[in-house]
Design a protein that fits this description.
Helices cover 0% and strands 50% of the residues. The chain has 118 residues and is mainly beta. Strands 2, 4, 5, 6, 9, 10 and 11 form a 7-stranded mixed β-sheet that branches. Strands 1-3-8-7 form a 4-stranded antiparallel β-sheet, with no helix packed on it.
């Protein structure tokens, strides 16, 4: 059973930065599409943050564009999310997800909490 494990969350002041990591227990090259999502309390759905497809440029939600950078390191079987200029509205549990191909079911990590204080 493949596992995705996120880390790097924490408490940071507005304007600060964090880098999230997602380590995959198998060869990450098997996941042609990987992404970051986030969920805030009271919301039943996860909000898409960024997608990194193998060999393609990353794609971002408007809310994080120009502040967040998502990238993958296939050699380390890891996905990263560099978050700069954080805002209180970025506070959420952040999840990574992997898909073996586009539109395939997603494998999810357990999430990591990011809290941005004003």
């Amino acid at each position: 059973q493949v596992q995705l494990v996120e880390s790097g969350g924490g408490l940071v002041q507005a304007g600060g930065a964090l880098r999230l990591s997602c380590v995959v227990s198998m060869n990450i090259a098997n996941f042609k599409v990987m992404g970051w999502y986030r969920q805030t309390p009271g919301r039943s759905t996860r909000e898409w943050v960024a997608t990194v497809a193998d060999g393609e440029a990353a794609d971002y939600a408007d809310a994080v564009k120009d502040r967040f950078t998502a990238y993958r390191d296939n050699a380390k079987s890891a996905l990263y999310l560099q978050m700069n200029s954080l805002k209180p509205e970025d506070t959420a549990v952040y999840f990574c997800a992997g898909q073996t191909f586009k539109n395939a079911p997603r494998y999810w990590g357990q999430g990591t909490q990011v809290t941005v204080s004003s």
